[in-house]
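User: What would this chain look like folded?
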Amino acid sequence: MNLYRLIAIALPAALLAGSSIMQADTIGPGSDCATCEGAAYTLTYSGSPISSTSMTQTFQITLDVNDSTYTGGGSFLNAVAIKVAPSSDIVSYSLVSGPSGFSGISGIGLDASGCGSNGSGFVCTQSSSFGTPVTGSPYDFIFNIEVDTGTLLIGTNGASVKAQYVDSEGNKIGALLSENITLQDASVPEPSSALLLGSGLLGAFLLFRKTSKTRKARA
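Assistant: Here's the prediction, encoded as structure tokens.
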């Protein structure tokens, strides 16, 4: 097999494999997620710190919740919590933005009663009312979290996410989402962007090959 043919076969195969790996970081439909109940969750961070000191780094963390295929029976997303560093390494945290009604944030965990006392490194935000309708998703919760330098949990399934849903009377319904999740670097191109770039490179390569053959034939 000549070099041109090898590249033409290997490039799209490698791009497809890379796309599968990147897409696997979202938990939900089609993944092994016992408590997702059809919803999809993605957790990303800013890549580089948005600020730092001699001892700490602050990252912007985004939790994306897509309830378009949610099957748990709840009417509202009432609370979410994330863990991106060990509890002893969290210095400060804030909710930059979120759905309407989500404004407060606490360094405590999330249980069946809402934001509670089981912290273990979780930061939690809960709606001041029932929550935000599942039919209006996807929703982004954006946090700024300051941690001791080098302690961000960026390993495979190193971070964690929790979510609670309630019915139209504010009562918890369905499973309390509690899953490990891979914290993704938001500065890395999305799979679709990588595939588009790869397709363009492959097209340019094939055009170059065709042009080279035409010139040789005319020589």
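The radius of gyration is 22 Å. If you want, I can go into more detail on any region.
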